[in-house]
Amino acid sequence: MSPATSTEIAGQIQDLYGAPLTDLDAHAQEQPPGMLSALLGMHHTLALAERTITVHRERLAQLVHPEGEISAFEVSHVLDCARRLAEAVAVRDTQATSASAVLQSLGRAVPPQTSPAPTTAPATAPAPMPTTSAALSR
């Protein structure tokens, strides 16, 4: 199973809160930290990791291009780029897994339907005490 992308996570956050991500970002900045700000933080970290993966994958492809030679100087760049790529993949996978798990555990709250206030039945008086001789002899 491939990890969720930042676009999928963004869609799930928007569905959960019923607003576009830009509006949610603005709203979260006005509120004390909570679930929304945590989810948005996960999303931003996930999106950054995805961009980092793209940059380092492209750079690594340039460094190991079949027509070029890899000199001793470039070997350190290849290794550094591969390390950074692996770190970005680990961050992406962790953030995607965490955000997906949190979103899966949450459900959009459905506002309660407004219904007329329940009418209360008039209180009934307690049954009268029997006045038979059996009841009086107790």
Which features does this protein show?
138 residues; mainly alpha; 5 helices
How does this structure look, described?
The structure is a single chain. With 138 residues, this protein is mainly alpha-helical. It is built from five helices and no strands. The chain has helices spanning 6-17, 21-30, 35-63, 72-105, 133-136. Helix 1 (6-17) packs antiparallel against helix 3 (35-63). The longest helix has 34 residues, at 72-105. The termini are far apart. Mean pLDDT is 82; it is low at 132-138.
Brief overview:
The protein is mainly α and 138 residues long. The protein contains five helices and no strands. Helix 1 packs antiparallel against helix 3 and helix 3 runs antiparallel to helix 4.
Report how far apart the termini are. 78 Å
Outline the biggest β-sheet: none
The overall pLDDT, averaged over residues, is 82
Shape: elongated
The run of helices and strands is HHHHH
Number of helices, counting only DSSP H or I runs of 4 residues or more:
5
Radius of gyration: 32 Å
Low-confidence stretches: 132-138
Task: Provide the β-strand percentage band.
Answer: under 5%
